[in-house]
Amino acid sequence: MISRKILPRAAQKVLRSQTSRRPSDIRTLASAKTPGFNYETGEVNGIKFASRDLPGPTTQLAVVARAGTRFQLYPGFAEGLEKFAFKSTDRRSALRITREVELLGGELFSYHSRENLVVGAKFFREDLPYFVELLGEVISKTQFLRHQLHEEVIPIIKLSQKAILGNTNEMAHNSAHGIAFHRGLGTPLHPTSSTPLTKYLHEGDLKLFSQAAYAKSNFAVVANGASHDELSKWIGEFFNDSPAAPPKDLPPIETKPSRYYGGEERIAHDGGNDMVLGFPGSGAYTGGHYRPEIAVLSSLLGGQSYIKWSPGFSLLARATRSQTRAHISTRNVSYSDAGLLMISMGGDASHIREASEAVVEILKAISGGDIAKDDIKKAIANAKFRTLEAGQNIGTGLELTGAGLVQSGKPSQIDGIADAIDGVTEEAVKKAAKSLLDGKATVSAVGDLFVLPFAEEIGLHV
User: Distance (Å, rounded) from C-alpha 196 to C-alpha 453?
Assistant: First the structure.
């Protein structure tokens, strides 16, 4: 122990104040039940909203619309709508929006996923009225000018297409979704390089789609770091121009339930090697297809380590130690009515082949009960932590909560998810692993197809 005599006087003073602190003064770690951890919800003028009044000087606000690639009317519409966010509106030019936000020290963002389009801002807490007004204006008053589409939006989309051509990991994941779900969730997250954008992307059609995407029943407003009453007040004042329903002359946004198909696709590529083994996974907690045992199975399989200098406890991490030129990870991607459990492998083709064989052997071992109870306990703890961490993450929580409000009328409250994971039994994990092996798998291989295996070669049914 360091002697107090060699400590500077100021350091000794700090040490005395810390050691004399009463237990009641010491902050404890937040649990899933901590007040303020979950969202408070409401509805004003037909618009659903949710907020967490987190302490702090900043706020994050977002509009979450059911307008991702699954629900787009034509190829490129979700990305086109995303890229038009914060362009010129009926009241402000794009330059004016930029200058005003800069003067307030704020930050603007927009992105889309397979189910959602998210448009939002980060700013000082006291600037909430301005940014609520701005988002209300962006979703209802954007002009969709022709020159902005052809000079700013389409060129950026084409650049992203070129980037994807060299990204074997992105190609494998898009391929896996297409195999698993065909249309809807199977639509690529970004238009492929062969997509005829000029055939589908027109400013007039995008404007019509925006009226459906931003109809009051199709989006929710979510805030972190804002008073619930204040948020309700300003939404009621600044979101009055959003249409109550989509235009009658526009095809309705597709709401057909997702269906899992499975199958195999192989894509030759000389820029790298990636392989995805997919299986029916768990849907979102707010839907009717949530399976907590899938989250535990995902952590049990693992592959990646969360502890520095350690390969981790997961079964795939231990089984693939000799495959040093391949990285492997497992995650469940959840959607409103479906999920896809994906085991992703990238790196040297021969090591990917060996790792894929290990995946099937480990699934057989789990389904047969050849697994230590301590590993199950570790997997439950890891799955619970990952879930709570994701829910506490402000950005992730915004989209999950908004999507839950739009799709089912209830937010994604993470304490309920944590309780469900706590209740997972060893038997449930075994049954989940067996169901994966007995059903149809989704197998996507991108890279050196001479080495990368077929599904049947590693013992999977497609």
Answer: 33
- Cα dihedral across residues 380, 385, 388, 393: positive or negative: negative
Q: CA-based angle 359:189:153, to the nearest 5?
A: 155
Q: How far apart are the first and last CA of the chain?
A: 62
pLDDT tens string 128-157: 999 999 999 999 999 999 999 999 999 999
Question: For residue 308, which amino acid is it?
Answer: K
Between strands 47-52 and 58-65, the pairing is unpaired
Pairing of β 58-65 and β 117-124: antiparallel
DSSP 433: H
Instruction: Write b or e for each residue in 148-158: b if 16 or more Cβ atoms lie within 10 A of its Cβ, otherwise e.
Output: bbeeebbeebe
Give per-residue pLDDT as tens, 281-329.
Answer: 999 887 778 999 999 999 999 998 888 888 788 999 999 988 889 999 9
At CB < 8 A and 24+ separation, what contacts does 390-394 make? 390/414, 391/37, 391/417, 392/30, 392/37, 394/60, 394/224
Instruction: Provide the 3-class DSSP secondary structure of residue 127.
Output: helix
pTM for the model: 0.87
The single-letter DSSP state of residue 194 is: T
**Total residue length of the chain:** 462
What residues contact 23, with CB distance under 8 A and at least 6 apart?
Answer: none
